Structure formats: structure tokens, C-alpha cells
Amino acid sequence: MAVPALIAAALSACSPPALLNRLDSVAGGGAGVERAGQGMAFGSHGQTLDVWRPRGGGTHPVVIFWYGGGWVSGRREEYGFAGRALAARGFVVVVPDYRKVPAVRFPAFVEDGAQAVRWTRDTIASFGGDPERIALAGHSAGAYTVAMLALDPRFLAAEGVPAGTVKAGIGLSGPYDFYPFDTRRSIDAMAGVADPAATQPVNFARRDAPPMLLVTSSDDTVVRPRNAINLAARLKAAGAPVELRNYPGLAHEEVVMALAKPFRGKGPVLDDSVAFLERTLAKR
């Protein structure tokens, strides 16, 4: 199928990640990059991950990218477009899977995220990544994992990850301030939690948090912009480095779509993310 026809099909089908990934590949999103690891085991629950990197060798800063899906869906294979986009800009990119609801509830998916950070810290040098320059990024439920790992130090400490390992975090359209739980997804994901406040990233804002870029969009009706706005305000009040971007006219899914090559005209999500990463991961 020709690229224009594929794009039309993607739009008519609300661009599910697998089709979006295919579109990106057809449009040349993988130029200059390679998948250096596929389905690699990590953690203690049968999790797997992929590794993308620039071709040509060298040592590069690292981004761990978690996909969204409301804690109930998503597969690493479908998010190669995110790995390729960042790898093409000079990063080694880890895309992990994690356990989903209803098989697990909070905090299992965040614990899986911490195990992915531990694997990356211990292993990424063999893929050309610099373990001293690791950033976290994610969309939607994946951005929630980013925020929890960046702000609540207990998760990484439990996996033996040294303090200061995470140098920066990017949250795309993430839920950070959503209690009381009022959607089926959040109710199911946080079911049985004894202390709901402990599920909310906004409650862990601290002065010594790594720099964060929080992205939202005016037409996001899935995860309301107030989530990013409230967390950015709380971090700023604490004296932590934080940047907020609110893209006009973009819906929730379009923010992550803008990482894929055919849809980058929707908004400067990739350029803004890369500029932030280059500032925060620069060698000192």
C-alpha cells in the first residue's frame, strides 16, 4: 500500500500503535538506526525489552521509553517508532515491556520500570550507551512511570540503583494528579492501595528531583492538562528544574503520534524533547 493510503488508513483507524509503527517504518523513520537488541529478558517477572541505537558505533546518552495504554495494553514491538525517532537523534533507546492490569495492580508496573532502569544501568554500555547519562521518557501511563521513578526514590533504591542515576525525565501526556480515582482505568490500576496519596507523583515533588520536561496538549480529554500543569507548579515551588509545554490543538494520542516521521508536523514533540535531553545529558 502506498504511503498516502497507509496514512489515510491510520487516521481512519485512530492510528493504533502497530499501524503507526508500520507507517513510520515505511516513511523511513529507521534511517541511520538499528535494533541492537530484541526481546531481551530483564527483571524478575519475565519482562522483555528492545534496544535501538544509531548506526556507526560510538558512545551515546541513553533514553528509556515507556509506552502508554492505560496500564492495560501496549507492547514494546509497537513502539519501535519512538525508539527509532530518538536513536536517529543520537541516543541509545531502551523500550521495555511491563506487567498490565488486571494481572497486576499498583505498584507492580512501576516496580517493573525500576527493574528496567537497573538493567539499563548494568548492561547498556555493551550496546554503546553511557550509563552515566540515563534519562527516562514515556507517554500516558508510561509517563506516570517516569514521574514515579524520577520523584519517589524508593522504587529505584529497592532495585539497588544508585541515587543520581536518572539525569532527566520527560513525561508526555501523563497522569500525575488524578486522585480521587474517577475513571475505570485508574480505579482498576490503583485498586486496593492502602494510601492513595502514595500513587500520586504530584505528592513527591522535591527540590533535588532530576530536571523534568512535562508535555501536555490543549485538546487532551483522556489525561487532562491540569496533570502536567499541577506537577510543574509543585516542582517549581519546591525549587526543582522543570519545563512545561502545552501544545495547542493536539489530542492525547497525537502527542505520541508526533514522534513518528509521517506525523511530526503535528507538533514539535520530538524537537523539544531532544533539545531538553541534549541540555540535561550534556557531558560535564
Task: Give the name of the CATH superfamily.
Answer: Alpha/Beta hydrolase fold, catalytic domain
Number of strand elements: 8
Task: Enter the CATH topology name.
Answer: Rossmann fold
Strand content: 15-25%
Low-confidence stretches: 6-15
The level-1 CATH class:
Alpha Beta
Question: Termini, distance in Å?
Answer: 48 Å
Count of DSSP-assigned helices? 10
SS-based class: alpha/beta
**Gyration radius over CA:** 17 Å
Q: Major sheet: order of its strands?
A: 1-2-4-3-5-6-7-8
Query: What is the string of helix and strand elements?
Result: HHEEEHEHEHHEHEHEHH
InterPro entries: AB_hydrolase_fold (IPR029058), BD-FAE-like_dom (IPR049492), Carboxylesterase_B_AS (IPR019826), GDXG_lipolytic_enzyme (IPR050300)
Protein name: Alpha/beta hydrolase
Pfam family, one: BD-FAE
GO molecular function: hydrolase activity
Please describe the topology of this protein.
Layout: H1 3-12, H2 17-26, E1 33-42, E2 47-54, E3 60-66, H3 80-87, E4 92-96, H4 108-123, E5 129-139, H5 141-151, H6 154-158, E6 166-172, H7 184-189, E7 212-217, H8 226-238, E8 242-247, H9 252-257, H10 269-280
Signal peptide: 1-20
Protein name: Alpha/beta hydrolase
Pfam family, one: BD-FAE
